[in-house]
Each structure stands twice: as C-alpha cells, then as structure tokens.
Amino acid sequence: MDDLEKFYADSFKGLRAGAITKGKVLLVKPEGVIVDVGSKSEGFVPLSELAENEIDTLKPGDEVEVFIERLSDQNGFVKLSRQKAKGVRTWDMIEEAFQKNQPVDGRITGKVKGGMTVNIGGVNAFLPGSQIDLKAPRNTDSLIGQTHTFKVLNLNHKGANVIVSRRVLLEEERNKLREQTLTRLKEGIIMQGVVKNLTDYGAFIDLGGIDGLLHISDMSWGRISHPGELFSIGDTVEVIILTFDTENEKVTLGYKQKKPDPWASVEEKYPAGQKVFGKVITITDYGIFIELEEGVEGLIHVSEIDWIEKSIKPSKYFSIGDKVEAVILKVSKNDKRISLSIRQLKPNPWEIVKDKYTAGQEIRGKVKSFAEFGAFISMDEGIDALLHISDISWVKRIKHPSDILKKGEEIEVIVLNIEPEKERISVGLKQLTPDPWINEIPARYNLGDTVNGKVASTADFGLFIELEDGVEGLIHISEIEKKPDERIEELFKPGTEVTARIINIIPADRKIDLSMKTMIG
Prior knowledge:
Helices cover 15% and strands 41% of the residues. The chain is mostly beta strands.
C-alpha cells in the first residue's frame, strides 16, 4: 500500500462507496448541505438532492440518512445523495412488501398506455388499467393526485420495474366484508346498503361485500315508472331482507315494506260517501287515477266526471298533478280498487227534472243539435231532451229534422216521457196541436174524390204526392200509366203537379192511396 492509499484508508475509515450511512448536518448553505458522516469525514449534499420541505427545515445538528456516491470529490468532500438513499430504502421496502405480501402506499401521478403511474416513495410503479378498481372507472383523470394502498404484483430490480394492483386489495377487503355480512344476513332484518346500480326493473344494493336486488315492485306502495325516481347511485339506504338464498347467496330486498301496506286499512279510512282530495297521477280515455296517499289511488271513471256530458275526453279537462275533490263510491281492499266520483259532489239534474216536469207539460227550449233520427232540445238544467223526427209533424214525411228546424231556434214543445233512471227525456212538437187524422182529414177527403197535388218525392214503388196542408198521399207504381221502359223519376220530377183520385183512406195507418189510372177517360 502506497502513502496515498494509506492516507485514504485512514481518512475514510468505516466508509464505503455505494453504502447508506447516517450523518449530522453541520452547515446549511444556499447550494447544499454539509454533513458529518464520521471518521473525520465531511460530505456534501447538493441542493438538487434535497426534497422541497427539507430545504427550509434542515438545520445544524439534524440527523439525515445519505447514500455515499464517492469517497472524495475535487473539494475533498465525500459525495453524498439524499435521493438515492431514499430510493434504496424504498426499494428495500418494496421488495420486503413483495416478499411478505404486504401493502404499500403510493400516489397516482399520471396516465400511460394501458394504465397509470404510481409514485411509491420516489419509485415509479405501473398500475395496469384492469387493476385500478373492482370495476373499470369511466374517468381515470379524477384519480390523478390521489393516494391509495396497493399490492406489489411483480418486481424487477434490473429493469427498475414495479407492477402494483389496487383491485387485489379491494377484492380481499370485499371478501372479508362479505364473510362478515353473510354471518349477519337474516330474513326480516333491516340493513344499510349503498345503491350500486340502477336498471329498469330495480336497483342493486351493496350490503357489504354482497349485492341484493331491490325490485321496482318492492320500492314503493305507490306507482313508479323507474327506480331513478326514488334513488341515485351512491345513495345510502335502509332496506329489509325479504329472502336470502344461502346456497346461491342471492338476496332480495324490500324498501316499501318498512311501512305498513296502506291498503290494509282503506275500508276504514275511506268509507263510501266520504269527500276526499287527491292528485291526478294518470290520465286515460276511460278516466283519471287520483293518488289519495302514497300507495293508495282511486279511479274516477269518465262517466263519473259530469252528469250531462257523456263523451268527455279527460285529457282536455285534467293535467298530471292537478288537485281534485271527489267522493268515495266504492272501496275493495282485496282488489285494491277505489271508485270515485266528481259529478256526485253536485246535485243530480235528472232528479231536478223529475220533480220539476211532468208528462204533458209545455216547455220552451233551444235547438242544440241534430241527428238523423231527431233533434236535441236544450233545457234550463243543462239537460238535452230528444225531439224524435216522428214527433215533429202529424202529416209531413220529414227526411231530416233540419228541414223543419234551425239550430239555435227557440221552440215550444210538450213533455212526452221522463226516465231519470235512464237519464232520458223525450218531447214532442206535433202534440201541441190535435191529430188531424182523427177527425179533420177523414172529414175532408172522401173515397173517389179528385185531388190536385205536387210530387214531393219518388221511390221505387211509387210517388209521394203533397196535398193541401202538407197531407201526403201515395200513388203506387201500379196506379201510374206509363210505358214499361219509362222510369217514374224521369217522368215525375219533384214539384210536378198531378191530378189523382182517392182510392183508399185508412186513418188508423195515416194513409191515403191515390190513382192516376182512374183519371183516364
């Protein structure tokens, strides 16, 4: 050993390049820190080797752990590194965690192809996308900067590769939690859970390592169309265990069952005849459904909306959410049905009509509308009376009521019949005058008389002739002199004047038969 080698051996006794040792801070300078590493040796840690928090906090006397890079530099200092010391310790920690199957803490720092990067005490590790969570997250950007616990899956010192997993630890934790949950699960008990997923038919609730299905039919005693109306993913809810299949570990849950079935007491709570208020929740062509309380609804049939109007379209009069008053008609607990009525909150106009009018009474009304079979006459009570086409005239053969009457015209009629139970009243116009077929017509027209008239209309079987005062007679086709190929509708246009002879009078049938053949010669 030469003198120089002996000098270094004496000066750096106990120190070895590549080793980690502890030293004491002697001086903190702007460009770095001077550290006493023992054996009468001083080392220098450059500013770049210090963590941000160390630059302002280190002071003389503080003990620090350093890595010896070289025993002497150009200034005679031992070259030291804080980062390498931390790196070596971190690698030792990671390797020990890998060997002993222990977790490590790390901070997610960024995204790379196929996964994310995790900083573990200064060492970068790779977190594959499949190992981030139990379920692949939709937005991994939100994870950057978060600190989590990971399991070391693989370690390669030479390539400085570390592969970690968060999912493995979550699965282990979930399995432990699942075992605990399974020991507590019993039908009928109430448990807390977290809404994990929503579907059209229900919600999946995480009870702690095991999922239960809360079907939409078990969410509310009332009517809901989608679970999202009551729950959101992440909500904490209390549910009842309805069934638990231990063999298949399937759990069905209930939410509405925490409250009594409201239909159990509806017959006592809603007796027939009671007035109630409710909210419109459904509108159909045949009526509206009213919510009386959560889970209890009743139907107002279209026939129970108004006494007068029978062809009401409910959607024109009601909207979802409208508050309406009604009266209870009938309650069936077993069928879960309640029949309601709006019209019966008001007096029945047919009862008023029954007490106010009698058959034979003369009344006034306006022509409201027409039908092929007659006209509807509006009365003061809002009720329409039917004036049948056969009750308009004693003698005229009327094709349509509008030939005689005008819409909006005020006329006088006589009450013929009242049927309140059928909500029907009929009136007559011709009954205001005596029936001319009883005495007047038989006295005026005699068998064999010659009469003049005009063609009112034609038919396949003959001609209808209008005589004086609107009386009509029939000339049968057999009583008309014509050639075989001639058509009576071409020979006799409406309004054509004809002369005929009376060949038959039957007052009981309101019939006068005429003949044109007897007029010849």
